[in-house]
Design goal:
- The chain is an alpha/beta fold.
- It folds into two domains: 45 residues, no CATH class; 93 residues, 3-Layer(aba) Sandwich (D-Maltodextrin-Binding Protein, domain 2), CATH 3.40.190.
- Helices cover 52% and strands 12% of the residues.
- The chain has a four-stranded mixed β-sheet with strand order 2-1-3-4, sandwiched between helices.
- The longest helix has 22 residues.
- The radius of gyration is 27 Å and the shape is elongated.
Length: 143
């Protein structure tokens, strides 16, 4: 039994000596963790950005239950929202009409041209809107 332990020690020592001589092993064993530690403690302001800001006008009252979602900015009206879009304070503007629950239609305003599939704000807002409708339905049933 002790013979196996001695052999394992010898093998471990030889492998360690071989690996230490390799530059790549030293870089990945010491350098990468050191860079990660430095990056974790550096004070970068770009880490506070949580993605695009999306503006919305809710004429139906569906989104009342989801106040405080990061990245969403509630606008007082279409004119305020379009001005924020022009000023590039938001990347997209969604207008929820009063008959949203019965129609399911939402107006989407954005700058630029091209396919809407290149813009992820639509998917993000759709997910938030689904959560709002589901939350509103749960609140109504439990009340």
């Amino acid at each position: 039994m002790f013979d196996r332990t001695a052999n394992a020690r010898i093998i471990f020592k030889e492998e360690l000596k071989r690996q230490i001589r390799r530059i790549g092993w030293r870089i990945f064993t010491v350098g990468v963790p050191l860079i990660m530690i430095i990056d974790a403690f550096s004070d970068d302001d770009d880490t506070t950005d949580n993605g695009p800001k999306i503006g919305y006008v809710d004429n139906s009252g569906v989104t009342d239950s989801i106040a405080g979602v990061p990245g969403l900015v509630r606008m007082d009206g279409l004119d305020v929202g379009t001005q924020a879009l022009v000023d590039e304070d938001i990347e997209a503007l969604f207008v929820i009409p009063a008959d949203y629950i019965s129609t399911g239609n939402v107006d989407w305003y954005r700058k630029g041209s091209g396919l809407a599939s290149e813009d992820s704000t639509g998917d993000a807002f759709e997910n938030v809107l689904r959560a709002a409708v589901a939350d509103d339905g749960l609140v109504r049933r439990t009340s």
